[in-house]
């Protein structure tokens, strides 16, 4: 039962107009208190689907505003992915580096994984300090940190001293608390239902 | 303390190679049981940031595979958004319809909201049954349903009988249980930290 049950349509419309007027005023007053602008540090984590895809959606938004975007993928290696195919079509606007050679269980060579992750982190630092970039995405950096391929202390120290003129987005499950603590935005993707569990293969346009 | 503490680097490397070999075998065996392919119905909901941006990231992936994409935005109205600016650059691949005239508290006219939402739903149905589209995004449909502008029963009945040759993604907080029940993928974006709460204005390339 909603509170508007039993009201005529005309009454619902009038009530709605009054409520929306109030809400508009509230939102405007609230909005007026939001004065900060500047580069955000964002962390997208959790076991649900949507971490990397959300980051790539922000990349699309940034490109819509003619920002320049730098992307480093820490894990996906030689995989053919829709995101790589697509964003590499805009080489003037997007730098898309993929480090490593695939998921770690396909490599089975820890030293090679570490070297690839370290190289990816060095590249990330270059992009972050480069004033040409407005948005830097470090895709699956959390996995490289979790596997101890990149030092969390080094990452946190670097990010604390980052230039504040660009957005930085870090994805991957198991984000370390030291990282979420210094982030401006943290979303945890909570898994409610995943097609893989229902027998679906990972599919183009959705998972890669 | 990790179980590998105290091991030499060489021992860690050897242990890692053995573990990864096992994991690779496990993953391959598991993967072999995943045989289903076909259009997924996806619902991205919850209060955290990343619902629409995740959907737009999947759009980018789909475009990377040369799929054709139809987008209907139920709420954003006349807003200038990065996603609109960007995806409208590919009119041969993306149809981008924006219905309505902004957030409901700016309109204050319930009948106009209802008419816009109904029109957006009719457009959504056209895109879903059109064999030319491989991926259809109904952005913020959950809000139109929550506001009773579009009937949940009508949506569920239509989607149950949808063609299975394309992916459909529905976003917006407060997804109805009748909808998540019939979905193949459901992620709840859990809000851990949002820059708006720390005084930041919504920013280009991130929130729109």
From TrEMBL, chains A, B:
<dbReference type="InterPro" id="IPR003724">
    <property type="entry name" value="CblAdoTrfase_CobA"/>
</dbReference>
<comment type="similarity">
    <text>Belongs to the Cob(I)alamin adenosyltransferase family.</text>
</comment>
<keyword id="KW-0175">Coiled coil</keyword>
<keyword id="KW-0169">Cobalamin biosynthesis</keyword>
<keyword id="KW-0627">Porphyrin biosynthesis</keyword>
<dbReference type="GO" id="GO:0008817">
    <property type="term" value="F:corrinoid adenosyltransferase activity"/>
</dbReference>
<comment type="function">
    <text>Required for both de novo synthesis of the corrin ring for the assimilation of exogenous corrinoids. Participates in the adenosylation of a variety of incomplete and complete corrinoids.</text>
</comment>
<protein>
    <recommendedName>
        <fullName>Corrinoid adenosyltransferase</fullName>
        <ecNumber>2.5.1.17</ecNumber>
    </recommendedName>
</protein>
<keyword id="KW-0067">ATP-binding</keyword>
<dbReference type="InterPro" id="IPR027417">
    <property type="entry name" value="P-loop_NTPase"/>
</dbReference>
<keyword id="KW-0547">Nucleotide-binding</keyword>
<comment type="pathway">
    <text>Cofactor biosynthesis; adenosylcobalamin biosynthesis; adenosylcobalamin from cob(II)yrinate a,c-diamide: step 2/7.</text>
</comment>
<keyword id="KW-0963">Cytoplasm</keyword>
<feature type="coiled-coil region">
    <location>
        <begin position="8"/>
        <end position="35"/>
    </location>
</feature>
<dbReference type="Pfam" id="PF02572">
    <property type="entry name" value="CobA_CobO_BtuR"/>
</dbReference>
<keyword id="KW-0808">Transferase</keyword>
